[in-house]
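Archive record
______________

***
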Amino acid sequence: MRSRWTDTARPLAAVIVAFGVACSVPEHRSNSAAACAANPASANLNMTLKDLAGRAVKLADYKGKVVLLDFWATWCGPCRIEIPGFVEMYDKYKSRGLEVIGVVVLDEFAHAGPFAHRFKMNYTILDGDGREDVEAAYGPLFALPTTFVIGRDGRICQKHIGLTPRETFEAAIKSLL
């Protein structure tokens, strides 16, 4: 005889396992790690989000830069693994035109400040939680991290879902700088 707990726990466990797999299996969208796809879509940079200090930041102001746009949450294990690599790449390539932007989603933005301090995040952190325009622009963000590599011309060159090796991001960034 099954209990109500078993009837509730199994579907919940299946969802948790599926989410964990989605968070750890990368999806790569590009013809090559070294360049943009032949006809990449334009990134929607026509939005303004708040940063950790409460200032309005226009994504359009980053046009002309190579942008690594990372959607993440403080509770996301794969996000925690990728962030130190983003910190290092930003230090290494910001003088050549790289901008790293972390957009917090599916998480309370109040958690982002202490998290950013603890992880020594040296790049822009923005609040995208609950923003329908963010999902409309970049698709449903159910699996984290979801990261876009955007060229200087504002075109999306790569999209990665899940934990992605730093070398993959670095190769794309170097080819676009």
Confidence is low (pLDDT under 50) at residues 1-34. The beta strands are 27-28, 48-50, 56-58, 66-72, 98-104, 124-127, 146-150, 156-161. The longest helix spans residues 4-24.
